[in-house]
Write a structure and sequence with these properties.
Layout: E1 2-7, E2 10-17, E3 20-27, E4 34-39, H1 49-57, E5 63-69, H2 71-74, H3 83-98, E6 104-109, H4 111-123, E7 127-131, H5 146-150, E8 156-161, E9 178-182, H6 199-216
Parallel strand pairs: 4-5, 4-6, 6-7, 7-8, 8-9
Antiparallel strand pairs: 1-2, 2-3, 3-5
Helix pairs in contact: 1-6, 3-4
Length: 218
């Protein structure tokens, strides 16, 4: 059961899943060849700067962007549930993401990136976009989540802040994925005022990398 509301340039769709009601905000490309579905992290929503920027930039490059709010977020809860429930929500959303018949890139930031990696092969994702992949909890590198990333099983792009406490780029293992570093950026891709690059430049580095990568996908 879905419900769609359209406004200028976007459409909002609610989707019932076994984890509750989810919501998709669609940003359509006129001649779409791919769908990029991105969800939020465990402590934020789809208004995150990277997700907003991708929704603004990618449609002009033939990529329809779907910003996905997990059921817990739609319900107004402040804390995300466990990984199994997040995966259940993502599975329930997937048919709505894939209904166009276009290849779907499964993506997200932080906890959403983990969900995308864990479910990519099962759901038939075309590729995975992992924004600010939380390689480990801050200060606990021994609690690595590298297996989730390495197990995605499809072409994967990691976009990581150079100063991300959840895993700096140099901490990542070698593996079947590409990694783009956003200099000075933290887990939310914020850069300090003293940095050699501006905040706008940091965000454009993210969108430039994703535009190039999606253009390379067959």
């Amino acid at each position: 059961m879905t419900h769609v509301t359209k406004t200028a340039g976007t459409a909002t769709e609610t989707v019932e899943t076994d984890a509750g009601t989810a919501r998709i905000t669609w940003h359509g490309a006129k001649k779409a060849r791919l769908v990029l579905a991105v969800s939020h992290g465990a402590g934020g929503g789809i208004e995150a700067r990277d997700l907003v920027a991708l929704a603004e930039v990618l449609p002009a490059h033939g990529v329809t962007v779907a910003r996905v709010e997990q059921p817990w977020r739609v319900a107004g809860k402040k804390l995300a549930p466990g990984p199994k429930t997040l995966d259940t929500g993502w599975r329930g959303i997937w048919p709505a993401l894939a209904k166009s018949g276009l290849p779907v890139i499964s993506g997200g930031r932080s906890a959403g990136a983990r969900v995308a990696c864990r479910t990519a092969t099962e759901l038939g994702a075309h590729a995975v976009l992992a924004l600010s992949f939380p390689l480990h909890p801050p200060g606990k590198p021994e609690k690595s989540r590298a297996e989730e990333l390495l197990g995605a099983g499809v072409p994967t792009l990691v976009v990581q802040g150079g100063n991300d406490p959840f895993g700096k780029p140099e901490e990542f293992p070698g593996g079947p994925f590409e990694l783009v570093e956003i200099p000075y950026a933290d887990h939310g891709f914020a850069v300090p005022k003293r940095a050699d690059i501006s905040q706008d430049r940091a965000v454009s580095l993210i969108t430039d990398a994703v535009v190039e990568w999606t253009g390379s996908l067959g």
